[in-house]
Amino acid sequence: MKKYLKHSLFLVAVGAFYCCSNDDSKQDNPETQPVKEASLSLKLASDFTVSRYNAVTVDPEVVIENGDPALAEYKWTVKATGTNGTVKDSVIGDTKTLQFIAPKAASYTVNLTVILGKLTKQVSTKVAVSETGKTYTSKVISVIDYLPAPSYSSDNTPFTTKAEVMAQIQSDLTEENGISLGTFGGSIVTAFDHTVINTYGKRDFKVLMNENNGSLKFSPVSIYVAYDANKNGIADENEWYEIAGSEYHKSTTVKNYEMTYNKPDPAKAAATGTKDWQFDKEYLKWTDNKNAFGFITKTKKWRRYNYYPQWMGESYTVKGTKVYLPVKDVSDGEGTVFNVGTFEWGYGGIKDPSIDISWAVDNNGKKVHLPGIDFIKVFVSTFAEAGATDLVTSYFIQAEDLNFSKSK
Q1: How distant, in Å, are the alpha carbons of 104, 137, 189, 193, 403 from that of 408?
Q2: Which domains are seen in the chain, by residue range?
Q3: Which of 221, 374, 388, 405 has the most CB atoms around it within 10 Å of its CB?
C-alpha cells in the first residue's frame, strides 16, 4: 500500500512539473505580432518673408512613426533658370532645417522632398525676398583687424600706434596693394558688405595672395570664417570657424599652437653666421607653448630693415593651427635657393584658392552648417625660413564672392 502511495505521489508530482513547464513555455513564446509599417507626414508654413542676403529659417514638422528618423533623407530645391534658359530644380540643401538666403529680390517656390525607405513625401512653400535698397560689391571692403607677424616687410609700416596702422591697411585693401602678414600667426580680418551665400555643391569665395615670383616664395594661408548670426555687425568670438583644408587632419598639423615674439634689442651686437647671408642668427627670439624656442635670422639683404611691428610693445603672442610646409634647400647646402611646397585645397595662396563654406569646422573639428559668411580671417599657419631669401611669408590682396549677383 505504501509503495503504491509513493508511486502515485511521484506520478502526480511529475505531472504537475510538466504542466507548469508547459505553461511557462507558452508564456515565453507569445504569438508573433505583425510588423507595423512606417509612416511619414510633413507640415510646412505656406509662406516666409525675408530681405535679400538675409537668412530665414524654414523648419518643417516631420512626423515619423514606426521608422528611424535618422534614416530620413532630405532634399530642398528651388526653381532656377540655367544659362541655356532651361528652368530646372536646383538643390539648395540636404538637412531637415533650411536656412534660406537669396541674392535677388523675388518670390521663390521652395520644395522639400523627404525619403524614408520606400516612402517619399513632398511639401512646398513660398519665400518672398524683398529689396534692401543697398548696392553691393563682390569683394571685401573693410578691414576689421590686422596683426602681422615678424617680417622684413614690417619696415614698410613704421607706425607706432594701431590706429595709424589700420588707416594704412584700409587704404592698401581699397587699392588692392599687397598687405604683409609675415610669418606664423600673421593675420587680417576683413568684412564683405553682404553675406556670402553657402551655395549648395559649389565653391563660394576665393582668397587672393601674392604669387611666387622666381626665387621669392610665399606661404599658403589658412582661412577662418564667421557668420553674423545675431546681425550686430561684429564677428563675435563664438562665431568663428576654421576651414578644414587638405592639411587639417594630417599628423603634422598642430592645433592650438602659440608663438610669442620678442622685440629685438637694437643695442645687441649681431651674431653673424658661417654663411655670408647670415647677418644676425640671433636677431629675434621666439618661444612657443611646446617648450621650444629659437631665433629668426636677419639676412644680409634685409639687414637695414626692422622685422618687428613697432606698435606691438616688447612682445606679443599669436595662436592658431600650425601647418607643416615642406621647404628644401636645392643649393647644395648654401641656403641660397629653396623649393617651397604648397597645399592641395582649402587654403589661400595655392593654385586653386577657392573655398567651400561647407568645409568649416568648430574647435573640436566637427563640421558646421552655415547659411553663409560675413567675415573672413586670413591666417599664416606656417613657420619656415628659406635661407638667404629670408622668412617664407604671405601678402594678402583680396577676397571675392564667387557667386555674386550683380543686380541691385
Answers
A1: 8, 10, 26, 13, 14
A2: 39-130 (2.60.40.10), 142-401 (no CATH)
A3: 221
